[in-house]
Amino acid sequence: MLAFLARRLLTLALTAWLATLLIFALLQLVPGDPALLMLGTAARPDTLAALRAQMGLDEPLPLRYLGWLGGLLRGDLGTSVTYARPVAGLVAERMAVTLPLAALALLLSTALAVPLGLLAAARHRRAGDWAVAGFGRLGISVPSFWVGILLILLFSVKLGWFRAGGFPGWGAGAGPALMALLLPAAALAIPEAAILARVTRSALLDALREDYARTARAKGLSGAAVLLRHVLPNALAPVVTVLGLQAAFLVGGAVVVENVFTLPGLGRLLYQAVGQRDLIVVQGIVVILVILVVLANAAVDIAYAALDPRPKVA
Amino acid sequence: MPIRFPRLALAALLPAMMAVPAPAQEQPRSQQARTDLVLGMRLEPPHLDPTAGAAAAIDEVTYANLFEALTRIDADGKVVPGLAERWTVSGDGLTYRFTLREGARFHDGTAADSADVKFSLDRARAADSVNAQKAYFAAIDSVETPDPRTVVVKLSRPDGLFLFHMGTGDAAIVAPETAAANKQTPVGTGPFRFEGWTAGDRVVLVRNPDYDGPKPALERVTFRFIADPAAQVASLQAGDVDTFPQFDTYEALPQFKDDPRFTVTVGTSEGETILATNNGRKPFDDVRVRRALAHAIDPKMLIDGVLFGNGVAIGSHFPPHRDGYLDLTERYPYDVEKAKTLLAEAGYPDGFETVLKLPPPVYARRSGELIAAMLAEVGVRASIEPMEWAAWLEKVFRGKDYDLTVIAHTEPLDIDIYARPDYYFNYRSERFLALEEELNRTQDAARRKSLYGEQQKLLAEDAVNGFLFMLPVTTVQKAGVEGMWVNRPVQANDATAVRWKP
Fold this sequence. Notes:
The complex is a heterodimer. Chain A is mainly alpha-helical. Chain A folds into 2 domains: 2-73, no CATH class; 98-264, MetI-like (MetI-like fold, Orthogonal Bundle). Helices cover 77% and strands 0% of the residues of chain A. The N and C termini of chain B lie far apart (60 Å).
C-alpha cells in the first residue's frame, strides 16, 4: 500500500509539473493583450507601454515562466494583473464557494442516485425500473444550466423561496450561504444523478446475476437483504469511478451553472480571467484544477483498493 | 451501510432547508420609502479606479457616486459644476481658472484642495501615466495652484471639449495618499463612499455623511453583477434587483413593458453602432463598393431584429440628440438593385467573399448575422467569425487585420476618430483633417455646428463605414424607483438623485 501511495504521489508531482509547462506555453499562443484590454480603444502607444511595464509583461517569456514556477514552489501564485490582488487570495475566496457547491452537489446526486439505482434493480423490468430509466434519460439529455433556469423560475420567481442567484458570502452566516448554494447544487446534481443512477442500476443487475447472489438467496435471505448486504458493496466500484469523474467535473465544470446563479465561484473567475487575458490567474487556477483532478483520481484508486480486498494494486 | 450515508445526509439537510426563512425581500415593503437600491450590471468592473482603465463598468459604479471631477456631466450631457463650483475661461481659450468647493473632503477625512487637483491632472498626463484617455489631458501645458481653492490650468492649444473631458471619470480627482490603492479601496470626494466588494457578486456604496453638497436620498447602493441574460430577467422578476440600467436582453423588454410592477425607459447613448470597414483593404478601398454595402443594409430591419424596435437609425457618425447633428439617414436608401449595380461598376458583378469579425456584445453578434444575410442578397458572401474582446482588440482594432466588423463607438463626440492617423478604419481624407483642424481652433458655437455638419456629410459621402443605429439605453426597474438617468451622455449609473416613491 505504501509503495502504491508513493507511486501515486510521484505521478501527481510529474503531472502537475508537465501541466505548468503546457499551460504556460499554450496560453502564450492565445491572442490578446491584457494592457490593451484594460485601456480599450482609446489606448495610445506610450500609455500601453507604461501599463505593460507596470504589469510586468515586458519581461522575456522564459524568465516569466521560471519566475512563476519558482513562485508556485514557494506557494506564491503571483499577482493578478487586472484585479491587482494576489492570485492565491482570489482563488481561496472562490474555492470557498466552489468546493462547498461541488460537495453539496455530489452529496445530493449520490443521495438521489443510489436509492434510485437500488429501486430500479429491485424492480427490474417493472414500473419502478421504467420510471428510473425515464428519469435517467431525461436527466442526461437536459443540461444543468437549463435545469438551473427552471429551478430559478419555480423557486425564486414563482414561489419566492430562494433568491434568484447571488451569494451573500460566508460572513453572512452558514444558513444564508447554504441556501444560496442549494438551488445551484440541485441543478448540478440532477443530471449527475441521472448518470449515476444508470451506472448504479446496471452494476447492481450485473452483480445480481453472480453466483454468490443466487447462493445468498438460496440461503434464505430476502431479496432486499441480498441487494443491500451482498450485491451493493460489490457493485460499488463502477459507481465510485463515475463519482470520482463527476467530482473532478464539478470543481472545474460548474462555470455555466455559476453563471446562471451568479455565484462567485472558481469557474467564473477562470472565465473572467480568460476574457481579460489575466494569464497569471488562468495559470494558477488551471494548475490547481489539474492537481484537484489528479487527487480525485488518486482518491478513486485508493477507494478501489479499499472496496476490493483482492490485492491487485501491488 | 453505504445506503445509510446519503439518507442521513439528506435528513440532515432537510431541517437546514426548513430552518432558514425565505428571504424574498431584503426589507419588507412598509409605509416608509426604502432608502436602499440594488442595481444590476452585466459586467463586473476589473477594479474601481476610473483613472486607470477603460472598462465602462468602472465608471458605471464610481462616476458621480464615489469620485468627482472638476466638472460633471449631468443626465442631459451638459457640463455642470463638480468639485469646481465655478470657473472662468480666458478670451483666447487657453487659461481655465477653477474655484473648488469650500468644504470638499475625501472619504478619509482629508481636505480636497488645489494640490490634489494638480496631483490628479499631472498624474494623468505624466510620461508613465496609465490613464486610458491620456489624450484628454494632452493640451494641458501647466497646472498652477495660487491658493488651496484655486486651480489655474493653462493649455498649449485651444480645446473645445476641455470642460467636457474634465468631467469624465478619467479626470476624477484623487488624493496622492490614496491614489495607489484606489483599485481595491477607492477614496473619492463623492456623496457615496465605498463600503465593500464581494468579488464576483457585488460592490456596496453607502451615503457619505460628511458630504458637503446635497445629500442623496439613498443610504445604500448595491451594484450586483449578473452576466447571464436569463439570470438578469429572473433577478428582476424575483425582486432581487431594483433597477437594471443598460439591460440588453432586448427580447425580454415587451414582457416587462406589459408588467405593471416594472417601468421600462428607453434612452440614448453615445454609441454610434457601425459596420466598421477596412478602407485600406480590397475591395473596400473602392468607394463604390462601400456605397453598395450602404444600399444593401436596411437599418430598420436591424433595429427591429436586434433591438426589438428600440433604436434610432443614423446616417453618419454623430448622435441625433447632439447639437450639430445632420440627418443623413436618407443618403443611401435600402435598394438591392442599386447595390448590385454599384458592385458591377466596381468590377464585382458576382459579388465577392469576405469575413465579418464580431466582438461579444449582443448587438454586434445579432447585427452581424442579419448583415451577413442582407449582404448575401447582393452577392457579397460574408462568413462570420465571432471573437472575444481581447482577440478583437488585438487583431481587428490594433492589428487592423479585418474586412468588416460591427462595433458601437461609445465615447461622447468621437467623430474625431476619423482624423486619427493609423486608426483601424484605414480612412484618410485631407478634407476631413482640415475640418478637424478648424474645429479644434473654433470657439464660435454656430461655426462649430456647421463644421460638425460638414464632417458628417463627408463621412456619409465617402461611406467610410456602414452607419447603422444608435445603441439605446434601456432600463428596466421596479415601478417605485425614480431619478435614474434615462440617457447615457457618459457611461455612468449616477445614483445621487435616485429615490423611492413614498
